[in-house]
Amino acid sequence: SKRLISIQEAVHEVDRQSLTLCSEVINYVSLQSCLKLRKSSDPRPRDLVYTYANRPEVYIALSLEQFFYQVWCKENFLRDKDSDRPMKRILIARGLNCRPRHPIDFDYARGMLVLHKPWSVNQPLNTRNKDKTIETFKKMLDNRTVPTSVQTEYMRAVRYSQEKRIEVVAKQGVLQGEVDIDELDQDDADQHLAWRAAS
Questions:
Q1: Is residue 1 classed as helix, strand or coil in its secondary structure?
Q2: Looking at per-residue confidence, does 120 or 183 come out higher?
Q3: Which of 57, 77, 110, 168 fits a 20 to 30 Å CA distance from 123?
Q4: pTM value surpassing 0.85
């Protein structure tokens, strides 16, 4: 039997590498859980968000993302079961409709503040004022206090929003003058009639 294989699989096969090796583990963090209030009687979870919110004073100036890479990954070290080698971790934020967009809206700004501005149980983020939340994030972008990846994602959102406007203008089309079919040769006339019928 035959099957189509991806280029990545083919490269691994040519190099005689195992297809199961991966040096990275993706850790998802729910941004919504960052904003939840817990009762003192609730059981204490050992997840990233709870550990960050109740972190020691030594780490109080770290954002959630900085805490993840500088503290959490080192304390909760992962090793590959088969090869016993260290595995790198990547933090991916989920929830709160936090996607890069231009112009910046409240959901995007709030999610970025949760990830990149220090907060804790004793000093929670105040995101009640939507305009102030957006302005705070804009200042963080201008002062470059967010990681380069956030800057890049935002610049891409700006460029993409401008491309959409170009597409809208292009979709509206350009009015063409009437074409005299009698002046066209047979192939061009057939092509023009087919184009008019399709549009």
A1: coil
A2: 120
A3: 77
A4: no
